[in-house]
Amino acid sequence: MSAGPFRLAILISGRGSNMIAIARACLAGSIPARVAVVISDRADAAGLAGAAALGIETATVLQPQGGGGSAFERSLAGALQKHQPDMIALAGFMRILTGRFVDHYLGRMLNIHPSLLPAYRGLHTHARVLAAGDTEHGASVHFVTAELDAGPVVLQSRVAVQPGDSEATLSARVQATEHIIYPRVLGWCAQRRLAWREGAAWLDGRRLDAPMVEDFRAAGHH
Ligand code: GAR
To answer: Quick check: pTM over 0.85?
Structure first.
């Protein structure tokens, strides 16, 4: 762990709205951390410009020509090593990392996933929730472990599925809550309130056997 302010590395592949929400929370002083670097696996990720506009260092790590996944992960590890992050936040990072890579950062890597895990791991969560006729949906901030979208969940947001929702309206409602819960969890990390121990998440010295839940169903997130 590095001396000085708690250092975050944020990994993105696209728009980066979660990254921006986290960066703004750091810059506003509402979480005692700084974003040391934003790394994208795509050169055209819109979030890169957003990070640069906030004065944050950015890097792009691409799949090396002719190299396999392990070559990519070596480059990514090198970029991370350079910035010595205390915590790595995956924020719309759409690449699956190998178990070997994940194990190296175990307890130091979080992800946000757009569903009430363990429901709807994987992609297209909003469409799948609508197709199933569910009345509730949400997002989960969880520690990253080798099994995809299966690590211990720290905090979930719960939203209502409204009659007439489309994938766009539902995902917008969920994303508005992501921008609240992800900075909150990273704030707990920076305050050293959240820890990884014995394969579980611990908050304020208590093992989280079930996720914390923030209920936005009546909060006007329509
Ligand atoms: C977020 O909604 C996040 O939950 C989702 O991608 C979006 C990225 O948006 N992540 C996944 O689907 C991970 N499998 P953003 O780039 O605007 O933060």
So the answer is: yes
Q: What are phi and psi of 85, to 5 degrees?
A: -75, 145
Which tokens is 17 given? 């709205």
Q: Does the beta carbon of 18 lie inside 6 Å of ligand 1?
A: yes
Is 142 designated active site? no
The CA 3 to ligand 1 mean position distance, Å, reads 30
Query: What is the rounded CA–CA span in Å between residue 153 and residue 151?
Result: 6
Q: Which atom of ligand 1 is nearest to the CA of 17?
A: 17
- pLDDT tens digits for 120-171? 999 999 999 999 999 999 999 999 999 999 999 999 999 999 999 999 999 9
List, in order of start, the domains of the chain with CATH numbers: 1-95 (3.40.50.170), 111-222 (3.40.50.170)
Q: Tell me if 15 CB under 6 Å of ligand 1.
A: yes
Confirm or reject: Cβ of 50 under 6 Å from ligand 1: no
Beta bridge partners, 157, equal 139, 214
Residues 38-64 pLDDT 10s: 999 999 999 999 999 999 999 999 988
Dihedral sign from CA coordinates of 146, 149, 150, 155: positive
